[in-house]
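Consider today's protein:

***
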Amino acid sequence: MFAFFAHLILTAAILLLMANLVRGVHVEGWGSALLGAIVLGFVNAVVRPLMVLFTLPLTVITFGLFILVVNALMLWLVAALVPGIRVQGFGPAFLGSLVLTLLNLVVTFLIPW
């Protein structure tokens, strides 16, 4: 249970850091970031697998690069659902999802769960 809450807080911190790094992505504070982390976890667990399944032909044709577009759409969806998180277009969503993915990789390598 501790690992879940630690991961939730780290994801919220990563969302805040990503918002500071990517122009066009805004997170208003820790409350929005924590809610965003919860919604992002739900979206990645439920909606993303369906999107990956539906877009499988495009993903195969693009050698997996279309997954980056799916990730951007998931971030954009989270911004639409969570008050206090705004993404101003697909470009910032795409760049934000890349930064989010890279920061999550760094955290995963530094902190073994």
Q: What stands out?
A: The helical segments are 2-21, 30-54, 56-61, 66-81, 90-110.
